[in-house]
Design brief:
By secondary structure, the chain is mainly α. Helix content is 61%, strand content 0%. It has a single domain, classed as 434 Repressor (Amino-terminal Domain) (Orthogonal Bundle). It has five helices and no strands. The termini are far apart.
């Protein structure tokens, strides 16, 4: 029997997302450790997202936004503004 690997679509990296999340965290005076803990994710995951080295799942983005006390609408608007 031959096993074939299925390719999984990986979303492209979004540098604007990384910049905005890092800026929001710093503006609020929060550490990566605190935000990661509050979001229920690993510190290394948040670090990779903020460095633009990881494309997080929507659930992860939502958890980070919640930890930063930002709505998804506010986050989206900030990302759109940064991308311009």
């Amino acid at each position: 029997m031959v096993h074939r690997l299925r390719r999984i679509a990986v979303p492209p990296l979004d540098p604007a997302l990384a910049i905005v999340l890092r800026r929001l965290r710093i503006d609020r005076g929060l550490s990566q450790e605190f935000v990661a803990h509050k979001a229920g994710i690993a510190y290394s995951t948040l670090a990779k997202v903020e460095l633009g080295r990881s494309s997080p799942a929507w659930g992860t983005v939502r958890a980070i936004a919640d930890a930063l006390n930002v709505t998804m609408s506010e986050l989206g608007a900030a990302i759109d503004a940064e991308a311009r």
